[in-house]
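Dear Dr. V.,

Thank you for agreeing to look over these. As mentioned in my earlier message, I'm a first-year student in the group and I'm still getting used to reading structure tokens, so any feedback on how I've presented them would be very welcome. I ran two proteins. I've put each sequence directly above its structure. The first is here:
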Amino acid sequence: MELVDAPHSKCGTLGYVGSSPTAPTLMNTYSRFNVSFKKGKGCWLWDQKGNKYLDAVSGIATCSLGHSDRVLRKKLTSQLKKIQHVSNLYKIEEQELLSQWLTNHSCAESVFFCNSGAEANESAIKLLRKYGNQTNSKKESIILAAESGFHGRTFAALSATGQPKYHEGFQPLLTGFKFFEYNNIESVSNLFEECNSNNKNVSGVIIEPIQGEGGVIKGDKAFFNKLRKLCSEHNSLLIFDEVQSGVGRTGKLWGYQNLEIEPDGFTLAKGLGGGHPIGALLVNKKANIFNPGDHASTFGGNPFACTAALTVLEEIQKRKLLSNVCLRGKQLEKGLSLLSKKFPNIIEGKRGFGLLQGLVIKKEYIDAKTITLKAFEMGLLIVPAGGNVIRLVPPLIISRNEIKDLVKKLNLIFEAI
């Protein structure tokens, strides 16, 4: 993204500083806004100049309880006074409590903890490889994934990501992946047949129940029901990437619940820690095949991270935040629908679940990145997604008035275009 240097209406100087890092000691891996935030509270952030921003990014669907949550602060402060890290050479009480909560509230029976979404997906890919080699060691193991999917920046996760733009400069990628069209069961079925005819074994499928980075594309219930049956018929595992859709983001605790099927496993990160690094791979009995030495993580599931995650999950229950996500999601959908009707020359449509919503912008008119910059001028933080989409992923605690404010700001942005 090119540097933009334009005056704000109230926020100073705006831009992505993509041509160089903000400090000479930082690698140039991010195109950053020219802003530094000094504090946050709930759904709001303040920069060093005192300007206030409504945060509809929430650390890219990560700050489930918003910024500087009172309960999370208290629990983590208490944990730091006890113990923060000992490694997985020893039993970790906080990790066991978190794994029990997760398995009690999902279709999984066991959990592996790591530090991020990419690491969780790396774990899933290793598990799929091992499963394929166990079930049919005489055939090459193939993993299927969706075009326009996104599974992370590490090498196996990148190889499973069906978007060529992320592959540029990093070829050759890992082999053993084939890609199908999302929500097209014939495309998947053809790959199963192709692999069988070429003496290859489909060890499993890794797929998002709703594609986030790919453009906020909802999974079709009929497609996923047939995909579940197809995987079962071929003795292949079905793994969901719920890094973005999990932990209440869609109005259900897990994204797979919107599709009324159960995967053999699913990955979590982002919203699980409420802003603190933690990832997880959850599996059912069939997929519970890792043995000691198969996989590991030094920091994965340490007491501090697990306390953060358990606090987030318990507070989602106590505060009835799933209900709030459904109510605020419907309110946001209604607001986005009105904007679509009011600005048909700019907006092509809307899509999403709960508080994972997207506005599809007409490419021939303006690009989503430009709108993101204009929103910044208005004190609104949003994030682009694939296919020229504006992604809206505010904290799960967002209120009715804050949704009204969000829609109002979007309306002002489109009026000014």
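The second protein is here, in the same arrangement:
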Amino acid sequence: MKLLDSLRNMVPRNSWIAQFIRYLFTGGLAFVADFGLFALCLYVFEWHYLLANLVGLVAGLILNYALSVAWVFADCKRTLEKKKFAEFAIFTLIGLAGVGINQLLMFIMIGQLEWLEMPSKMIAAIVVLIWNFGARKLVLFRVKKEG
């Protein structure tokens, strides 16, 4: 318990570090959904790897938005809090840019370099996790709530 208390004192709940740690957890859950659907579509349904990748990414995006708003950035004054459609649209656009980055990396690693699908998926996911957190934090969840 003392270790947890020490960590809480070192990393305040509303700091960007704490948000990034929560985003890692959220991203991890979204990745499990993404990765699971990717594997299901790729190996069970035998879809092309880019289509299977896209299905997984869309599911991960929806889960990530819900958890980001409710938990990761709950301590932030949301830039577009009263305009939920616009907020989701921008969140999605950032995610779509992430999808583009992910698809490009998958194409390069699998299609051009002939790497294995699963390690390529993991590498692409790490790059996109960093992109998504940074862009969403800067654009949508920049300002901390007062009080």
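From my reading of the second output: Residues 56 and 88 are 18 Å apart (CA to CA). The radius of gyration is 17 Å. Does that match how you would interpret it?

Kind regards,
E.
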